[in-house]
Predict the 3D structure of the following.
Amino acid sequence: MGSSTEPEETGAPAPAGGAGGEAEGGKPTLGKRKKRRLKVAHPERCIGCLSCMFACSRINAGRASPDRSAIKVKTQGGLEGDFAVVVCRACTDPPCARACPTGALVRREGGGVLLNRELCQGCGACAEACLIRAISQDDEGQTVCCKHCGACVAFCPHGVLEMEEVEEWTGGL
Amino acid sequence: MLRRVLYIDLGRGESAVEEREDLFEEWLGGTGVATQLLLEECPPGADPLSPEAPIVFSIGPLNALFPAITKTVAAFKSPLSGELGESYAGGRLGMALRFAGHEAVVVRGAAERPVYISIENDEVKIKDATSIWGVPATVVGYILRDVETGVGRRSIIRIGPGGERLVRYAGVVVDTYRHFGRLGLGAVFGSKKLKAIVVSGTEDVMVPDPRRYRRIYNRLFKTVVQTDAMEKYHDIGTPININVLNQLKGLPTRNFQDSSFEGAEKISGEVLADNYLFRRVSCAHCPIGCIHIGMLKTSFSREHEFEIRKISYDFELLYALGSNLGVSSAEGVLELIEACERQGLDAISTGVVLAWATEALDRGLVTLQETLGVSLRWNDVPSYLKAIENIVRMENEFYAALAQGVVFASERYGGGEFAMALGKNEVPGYHTGPASVVGLTVGVRHSHLDNAGYSIDQRALKKSLTPEEMVDAIIREDDSRGVYNSLVGCLFARGVYTPENILEALGSVGIEKTEGELEELGRRIFDEKYRFKRREGFDLAEARIPRRFYETVSAVGMIDPETIEEMMRIYRKRRGW
């Protein structure tokens, strides 16, 4: 399994819908590249296939596990209702990091947080601090959070997800 | 990967998990395993609606791991045909079972009063369902969603009043829009007083070599979303076949009295997509989204007040409740589909039964006295809606007979020559030619999905095929689908899962097989199913083929009974019977 801050190679195919960027392949060279963040650009196009969740756990956790996916597609009133795509919004002043008692979460350049697994105690304070519950603990108490690697984007068949470049994200909707 | 069987006994209120590595090793999973469990669990000659008849569910080694491997198989003794009952459903059940850690589930016995089963990982609870007995299948979902956990990763499967009242072709609704439709699993649920099963879990699936897994995954994902191997399902969906078959003269119309329908365009996939389709959804882990949901907006007052119903539609439904009943309005078909959804009935069987009843009334085999004044006529949607209700309530002897299936009803009232069933299963929407008739007759569950005879007929339109060639093609599909249905993949993606891709996908999850081994497995699975069929009294030599098939021109012209007989002879010979 890769470290929590650096994406493994995804080897992902280009997205079918034609929208969005490709996954971050190889190692990003700091400073030479603008930071990117994941954006739920068109939630209303979601068909609930969960391919993004499987991509996240497959690529970042090396296994199939919806529970360990940092992006979650939720149903609201079953399949008759609308899908909600829940993932880190890349806050520039992340409340989850502020709530973390051990300093395991630090602000990520471009928004969001980076997780230092060694410091994380799995207390769940971060999840409490995030109103949309974009950061969570799996059933083993391991914190699951998005690192904006974009692996899921490549597997969304309907262009729901996009990567966007940010210089400095100033928050707001 | 956890390869376990969960046994639940409704009579005793107990459950237990067993490791059955041997079973999965030999039979792979899915239908291979489910058939063995059915052979083990179902006593020979058991009444399909008695406590001793089991229900078996199984997924396979690739479920939830690869795109479009989304199905769960159910195996049971069919109360409709009295022999092998087998049905497949998508939705989220395959995923939920995978992450609950159960590759197969066996339900034994019967409860004393209505119950539902809640499965969350290893925790199995049998809960009282008295308060939801009688509730439509559509509504059960809303209710259980609120009282059960696992939002977003669970599956809720349930029956409607049709299953409770033991209509022999009642189905089980899976996650609102998918179904174990065929052969009466809903009635088996009803006989056990089992209203619903809720499944969810949080188990992981580890793969031995994540890199290898990702490599083959990426290739398959790309094929599913980018090539034309599944193009048909991306856009109009299966209903595209309404216009296609209509032009070929292969679309059963008014109980197979015609093979093209003057109203086809109005109920076509194109018209539904343009005017009613408002959303497409997907089974868990399938990027296609072939579930087409139409919105039926009906005014109920002069003040612009509307009933809004969201109805999933597919080709077979549009045939069975559309062209085959002469229904030439999209609203009418959608209403009939919705009635089947609410009651929890198989749409194909319901449509074929109503078509037979319409003709029987027309020909004077039954009168308005039997139909309780319901004047069943082609395209008469209100009468059909009333008849569906009467069937579920079994209002009188006639409707009770209709609730037993078209063969039973025709044995009672006559009209066997136009009672459109093969192997006692009401036929799907293809009057394409001899391969369809033979394929449905010999198929393990007498379904078009056993061996796709309709597709062989369509090939024969382009280049004529000899009876031998058609039979060989049927046998190839019979056997290879036994393997694919053991994975358990969606048949819409069968073009993606070539033998080579299946071997690589299996290899990446630690199951090394050869092409020869899989071919052999396919044959053995087929044989095992026939072992069950014969044990329960099925005899291919006694196959009953309604004369109507020979009286209406098909896509390849008139079907000659001698061709059918010859193909049946060749089939038996090839199988060594």
In short: Chain B touches chain A at residues 64-65, 67, 91, 95, 98-99, 141-142, 145, 151-153, 156, 175-177, 202-207, 210, 213-215, 217-218, 221-222, 225-226, 280-289, 310 (CB under 8 Å). Chain B has 24 helices and 18 strands. Chain B has a mean pLDDT of 96.
